[in-house]
Amino acid sequence: MKIREIKVEELNTKEFISERTQEIYSLVGKGLAINALSGGVDSSTVTMLGHKALGKRLRTYFINNGLMRQDEPQKIVSLFQKLGVPVEIINAQKKFFQALKGIADPEEKREAITQTFYKDVFGKLVKESKAKYLLQGTILTDVDETVAGIKRQHNVFEQLGIDPKKAFGYKIIEPLVQLRKDGVRKVAEDLGLPESIYKRMPFPGPALSTRVIGEVTLERIETVRLATAITEEELVFINAFQYMAILHQDRVTGIRDGKRDFGLQIEIRCWDSIDARNARPTRLPYEVLDRLAHRIIKEVPGVVSVTYNITCKPPSTMEAV
Ligand code: XMP
Is the distance from CB of 273 to CB of 263 less than 8 angstroms? Predict the structure, then answer.
């Protein structure tokens, strides 16, 4: 069935919010619904809509996979708490690191994360909660990319390890499926979500693991997490599409405390882009790069080299993995 797109120019956010809220309310009735919040604009918007419609009958979980940015789980949960929306953090770091152990291949990493999220962690929560409804922040671009084969198949039942025939009555509700990202941002703003959410810079689902070349370990995530925090602090004033720090697998020789040190290498990427399909490196002022490099060398243990990427996408991609 073809989904009717609601273009941002024709979107009446008040009407949209009222219609979707009523729809969720009438579908779920007196039952329970469940959803996973990541803090991205789509899942945040769905959480607010679901909360408006169902109040306490919506169970929202933040799955901490151990791959998020500094303090991200706590920041997101307390932001929602202020808005009156209870969110439970599920600490699943160990499971994710276990699943990622020994994997260096980019696609295998993504697969390990997807499997752990759906089959192991969220799948179990869904089954235990006895909720018959799952709220998902799928948008029209996700559907298009799935049909075009760009994204992995979004068959959520299959990913959750649930047989829809056996789990009779189990339903997925996708209130944002007629919208593109710009429409979702408008709805998010109208729902009272703060600018930090509705204007949020893109951040990938597999989180910092897309920025660790080679094996993802607790220690290597900690390195890239620190470098990311510094990069985000220093570049927050730059009007770029997305910026990031990447930890390389190769080591390079440097000098620290007068001694040779075969140390770590961080690459900075900062992108100008409209839709992430094409991108070019932002022409950052040299002083900004200089400050960034100094801080990373000083504050991130083991790093002896900082570089800036000057390659366009394509042939580069935005993330390193
Ligand atoms: P690439 O690296 O493909 O990134 O040029 C384009 C945009 O997509 C984001 N990205 C992802 N988002 N899951 C996601 O949810 C992923 O596996 C993934 N890989 C890349 C990336 O941050 C950029 O905005």
Answer: no
Task: Name the H helices within the chain.
Answer: 13-28, 41-54, 72-82, 93-100, 106-115, 123-129, 140-147, 156-160, 181-190, 195-198, 218-235, 286-299
Q: What is the pLDDT of residues 236-287, one digit of tens each?
A: 999 999 999 999 999 999 998 899 999 999 999 999 999 888 999 999 999 9
- 171-173 vs 303-308, strand pairing mode: unpaired
Strand 58-64 versus strand 259-272 pairing type: unpaired
E-state strands within 208-278 = 242-247, 252-256, 259-272
Binding site membership of 208 for ligand 1 (Cβ less than 6 Å)? no
In degrees, to the nearest 5, what angle opens at C-alpha 193 toward C-alphas 191 and 196? 150
How far apart, in whole angstroms, are the C-alpha atoms of residue 254 and residue 260? 6
* For ligand 1, atom 12: residue with the closest CA: 204
Amino acid 244: pLDDT: 98
Atom number in ligand 1 closest to CA 210: 19
Q: How far is the CA of 204 from the centre of ligand 1 (A)?
A: 5
Q: Centre a 10 Å sphere on the Cβ of residue 186 and count the other Cβ atoms it contains.
A: 18
- Which one, of 238, 233, 249, 272, lies nearest residue 320 by Cα? 249
∠ CA 113-266-254, rounded to 5°: 135
- pLDDT given at position 161: 67
The percentage of residues in the chain with a pLDDT greater than 70, rounded to a whole number, is 93
Token code pair at residue 308: 């800036």
Please determine, for residue 155, whether its predicted confidence score (pLDDT) is greater than 90: no
Query: For residue 187, what pLDDT is reported?
Result: 98
Q: How crowded is the C-beta side of 47, counted as CA atoms within 13 Å?
A: 28
**CA-CA distance, 302 to 25, in Å (whole number)?**
53
203 C-alpha vs ligand 1 centroid, how far in Å? Answer: 7
Q: How confident is the model at residue 146 (pLDDT cuts 50, 70, 90)?
A: confident
Which residues share a beta bridge with 172?
134
